[in-house]
Structures are given as C-alpha cells and as structure tokens.
Amino acid sequence: MGRSPCCEKAHTNKGAWTKEEDERLISHIRSHGEGAWRSLPQAAGLLRCGKSCRLRWINYLRPDLKRGNFTHDEDDLIINLHSLLGNKWSLIAGRLPGRTDNEIKNYWNTHIRRKLLNRGIDPATHRPISAVDFSGGGGGAAAEKRSSRGKGDRVKVARLPRCPDLNLELCISAPLEEMQHDLLVEESNCGGEFLRLGSSFLIDYRRLEMK
DNA sequence: AATTTTGTCAACCGCGGAATT
DNA sequence: GAATTCCGCGGTTGACAAAAT
C-alpha cells in the first residue's frame, strides 16, 4: 500500500514543543475540537506534522490528564492488565483515567519491569523466572537498551507460553476506576493469572476488545 | 571538578487497519 | 476490488538530568 508521507517534512518543526506552539494548539482545539489532525497544523498556524500535534495533545496538553506519580493501586492495575492484555498500552490506558498509553508504556519500561524482575517475575509472561535462556528476544526494548549500555552479562529469562486457553476475543467494558483498590491476583487452573475484583467477580476478558 | 554511566520521558518513526475515493 | 488517505498504535530514539566514579 503506497502511502504518501503524513506531512511535508521540509517545512515542519521537530523536537520539543515551545510554549507558543502549545498555546496555539490548545486554543485551536478549544475552538474547533479534536480530530482532522492532518489539516490541523495549517489551520492552527503550526509548522508541525499532524501526528505530532495529535501526540502532543493526547500525551501532554489534554486538560483531563492526571500528571504526577503513579499510585500503588495504579501500579497493581497496570501489572494485572498487562498480564491479560500484553503490550496493549492503549487498552491499558483506557482503564486508567487521566493516564496516556505513552505514559504507561514509559512507566512500565522504566519502573514496573524492574520491579517485577526484582521480585523474580518475568515481566513478559508474569510468571516466576524459572530458567535461563540465552536465545535472545523478549520485550522492553528501551529498558533492554539502557541496561545493555553497561556490562553485557545480563540474564535473559525463558519465554514460557501464555495460557493457551486464554480467550482473546476481548472488548471494552465499563471503567474499573472504582474497583482498583481490591484487585487480587489469583492463579488460574492453567497456571496463569487472572483478575479478581473485590470478592465477587472477575474481569471477563471476553469482553475486553482487542480492536 | 570533570567525566562517565544510568534513568527518565517526550517525541519520532513506521506499520496496520479503517474509511474513503 | 484496488488505490489512496488518515488515524491510532507500539516500538524506539535522543535529549536531558541525576548519580556514580
């Protein structure tokens, strides 16, 4: 599928956004709403690619963003959702009001991955690290890159298969915001993990849309 | 104090898929 | 049905700051 570039690169700014650019973008979206990202830069008088504007708005300028540290509950929720959904950051973000997929992805790669490894849990499979494997592969490229900057003798963990019976016909259900407190992780009978919410019900992953 | 290493996170890139022509 | 356009996503990069040497 031949695709033209999303914008004319010769006349677009790149890199960090200036305050003035931010203000232009905010003001344009306030008066015209989100969307039509391709034509937005010209309409807003910005020398930016539409994708760049979208990213800036979604990840940084949106008024409903909750900035600041992740709470312990949010940590747990991210871990549990990741065990179900894998690197579906946008789906995970959909369950964390005020958080963006980019923010969660970064947080995962910089904090949670390490936290799980320290606990002896493989962040890719969410299972105890039980074997050493030098065959390569295995997520968290950014973190891998960082850690590989230093000495090279990292231990890689075996990639165990995920629960083969997991039904991945997923769809989104109501936000879990109010349920975050009492998430518990229990072992399922195939050895994997699933979410137990409060004492009474589970996330039905058949209702979590994979899009 | 200078240099190197490591951590963090905003932003970019390229792809897939839905929508449109 | 094929080609094109646009949007959204996930992976990756690079700049900067902090910590270590």
UniProtKB/TrEMBL annotation:
Record's keyword terms, sorted: DNA-binding, Nucleus, Repeat, Repressor, Transcription, Transcription regulation
Which InterPro entries does this UniProt record tie to the protein? Homeodomain-like_sf, Myb_dom, Myb_TF_plants, SANT/Myb
What is any one of the record's Gene Ontology cellular component terms?
Answer: nucleus
Entry superkingdom: Eukaryota
Q: What is its main location?
A: nucleus
Gene3D superfamilies, from UniProt? Answer: Homeodomain-like
Q: Please list the residue ranges that the record marks as compositionally biased, kind Basic and acidic residues.
A: 143-153
One function term, GO molecular function aspect? transcription cis-regulatory region binding
* Name of the protein in its database record: MYB transcription factor 4
- Which species is this record about? Phalaenopsis equestris (Moth orchid)
Instruction: Give the gene symbol.
Output: MYB4
